[in-house]
User: Fold this.
Amino acid sequence: MRNVTKDNITETFLSYFDKQTDPRLVELMESLSRHLHAFAIETKLTHDEWTHGLEILRRAGNITTPERDEFVLLSDVLGLSSLVDMINSSEGGTSSSVLGPFHISDSPEMELGADLKGKHPGELILVQGQVRDVAGNPIAGATLDIWQTAPNGLYSSQDPDQEMYEFHALFTSDENGNYRFTTAKPVVYTVPIDGPVGDILKATGRHPWRPSHLHYIIKAPGFRTLVTEVFPDDDPYLDQDTVFGVREDLIMSYIPEAAEKFPNTGFALSGNVTEDYLRVDFDLVLQPNK
Assistant:
């Protein structure tokens, strides 16, 4: 095409595709190009604005490391990560939520009832629940990759004073599908604002706060992997999560318990809890593979 114009550039772009190209790839690229080109035309995008947009992408690439993915964070604050989650979720199971940019692979395997809090400050919470299928049957042998920030609001990959896998653990549900552990009460925190995503938030007048939460990745043979988060019902940012991760069925309650009610067995801290603590009961429902 020698005479490319703003009216025919999308069709021209699509005409260059090889006819043997993967049909799904063609579908995605066609829709992307139509929306992207329409966006530029509708907004009368200027050279300076697009140059600034490209600079944001360059900075996101430069700041991204194995421990911090600025592109994931960008997707999160734009609502795209949550939208993809919701598009690919079906009714019946626990809702999915965003993975976030700070997940670390190969968390250490721990026995059920292990303690993640250690010598860190903060309130002690006991977390327990059951992994089951949509029919209510327990799922034995499910793996639960669980992680959170420390009480200072930082993930271990952000904090040089933490060991790499602090507040990260891999559990396996027992024969009844149950899981349990203790940890420090999660705290609210801000997403990183020292990069291009932070600049976008500031420029648009948005706050960077996330409600406190626990992260989960649950896997079991024959079931869809569930990536999700669990949020307390008293959190001040529950209705203003900057990455749009909150779902109604992911909200849990902290139940105050006296120290003497801590279980006598089944936990690393059994027999050693002398202060009141908080209990969390949260079950997880997995959907079958399609």
